[in-house]
Every structure is written in C-alpha cells, then in structure tokens.
Amino acid sequence: VQFKSVGQQDWKFEVLCELFYIQANVQHEPTERANKNIRGNLRLLNNDSFLRENGVLVFEVIELYDDIEIEEGAESCWKYLLEGFVHISTRCDLVKGLTKNNEFAYKEFIDQLLQCVHKLNSIYAMQLRLVHDSLNSVSIIDFGVFYFSEMIFKIIEEYPDYAFMVRFKLVEMQILPDLITRLTVIYCRDIIEFLNGIFYGKSTWFLAQSVNSGHLFIKMKQRVITEIESYSSDLATNHVALASAMRALAGIVGYFGIKLLDSEVLLLLKVLGQAYTERLVQLSLCLILISADQFLRKQKELSLVFGQVLQSEISEMPLLILVYFQTDAIQQIEDNVRSVLAMQVPIPKLGLFEIQKLFRTLKTSAI
Fold first, then answer.
1. What pLDDT is attached to residue 102?
2. Beta-carbon neighbour count of residue 367 at 10 Å?
3. 12 and 146 in a common domain
4. Which of 24, 65, 275, 281 is least enclosed by beta carbons within 10 angstroms?
5. Of 286, 149, 133, 288, whose CA–CA distance to 208 is shortest?
6. DSSP assignment, residue 257?
7. Which GO BP terms, alphabetically (predicted)?
8. pTM for this structure?
C-alpha cells in the first residue's frame, strides 16, 4: 500500500487516506515495519497543531471511516486503528478526543487496547526466546506496551468511574502492572485491600514494575502509614485492620524497596510495643526483619521494644527468633518471616546479621 498526500484543501479526504494507510499497515506488516511506515508517512494525524485547529471535525471523520468500513462489510476497524495510533506522537490526543466525541465507545476502545497489549506481550515473549531477533524489535514492542498504557489512562481520565473495572481486567490478564499501580493510587484508593489480595496470589507479574512506579509506591506507603497511625489509637477495636495494613506495608517495603522515615519507624515500634495479639506481634517483627537497616537507625528504641516483647507471652515468635539467632539459623528466620507474611519477599542478610548482634546484647528474664 502506498500513501500520497492529496493537498491541503482536501484534508478530510487525506485523513481518510491516512486512516486506511494505518489500518493496512497494522493488518499486513510486522510491528517494526508498521511502526516505521506509520511514523514516517503520516502528515495530519501525527500533527498536534492540526488536531487542535480542527478539533471535533477530525474525530467525526474518523467515526465516518469506521462507518464506511462497516458499510463495506468489513469488521469494525477500531482494533487496527487503535493499534496503529500507538506508533504516532498524538496517540493520547486521538484516543481522548474519540472517547469524548463518542461516550458510548470508550469501553470498546479500552477492550481493544487491552487486546493489543496482550498481543504485544505475546510477541515480546516469543522474541525473547528467539536468539536471532534484534534488540530494536523488542524495544519497539516494549515502548508500544507503555504507550498503550498511556492511552488507556487517558480514557480513564475522562471516565474515572470505570477505573475499577479496568483494573480488574488488567489483573485478570496479568498485564500492565504500572498502570494497575497508577489506577490504584489515583482512582481506586483501596491500597491495603488491593495489595493484600495481590500479595496472596502469584504476584511475580505484578512485581515487574518500572522505575516510573517508584513515586506511586511511596504514596502508597504514606497512605498505609496514615491508616496505621489512625488504627493505633484504638488497638482493641482496630487490631484486624491494623494487621492488614502492616502486611500491606511489609509488601511495599520488602518487594519494592521503599524506605521508611525515622518518624515511621518510631510509629511502628510503638505499635509493636502496644500489640497484644499474636498476629500483630508477628507482622511487626517481620517488618523489622525485612527492613532492619532502617529500624537500626533507632537502635535504642528498638532494643527496648525487643526486650519488652521477649518478656511477653503474646507470641512465641520473639523467643524463636532469639534461638535461631543464637544458633546462626538465619535461613530458618527467613523461612519464618515468609511463612508469616505468605510472601516471598527478599530479606537482606546484612540487616539480619546486625539484628542478630542486637539480640545477643539483650538480657531478659524470659531467656
């Protein structure tokens, strides 16, 4: 298929030609070639100024193109157009304008975009297994997944009530973990419940977050800490909710390496010192062990709380950890932590060795 401009005054017809060109390339060309062709040969749809100047008229022409395709007996062309839009810089403006112009189509657009991501993920996985594939092909697919994520988010900005359903579909398909995190923080806001659900299952796919998600997990941590602070004012009433928040925090800290502030460390030590349920003591100890370097900044307060829980009879875990440390059974401590959390979190051994030194200095009547 060859594309040729037909003149400035006939822009509507030229847009129709560009749409046909996009559809033909997506249908008949490999992803990397379609990317090169579409990026290099569009004049109008890839032009921010053109879209701003003509606004709704452009989106009406795109709708007209779909109507023409249907009248000609073809299937709806949206899946090809949306997959093609990912290759041009105006992708988000196009999808945002289309959903605003047709408020009944946004669910279909999202479903089509999700299928595009699923398709690209399959190609990506296949190419990683083939030694002869070029890095360029893989990078195009990788960026394509990111751009699809941006397009879906643009639609959700227009229809935020649909965020929960989109997140459900993403989790079900196990794709776009960055977008899931973004939707959870900005729109869904059920951080504790959601993370606990994710961490109970096979969450390897969700852990494949990009560096762009770091600030979102910091926000998650801050909100969970706020909940913990609120719950800690009445442990008798809130101990179940507090335990749930502590586990979610352990996942954020353990899986994603998010650091705790000194004020947050002191709050968590206060919770451990006041805990009177076995579950809360266990979760607090697990959190300390997976982020030992941060708690050791408050070594004096940590020693006092350790001495307190070693003398209490709420849970046998403190004494068990003490015995493990005395016998250098570090692996048993790691296994115990992961068993309590039901999460395969990484546990820095250097931090455990420092906690071991601290335990050896403790002298309690419970030993």
1. 85
2. 11
3. yes
4. 24
5. 149
6. -
7. snRNA 3'-end processing
8. 0.87
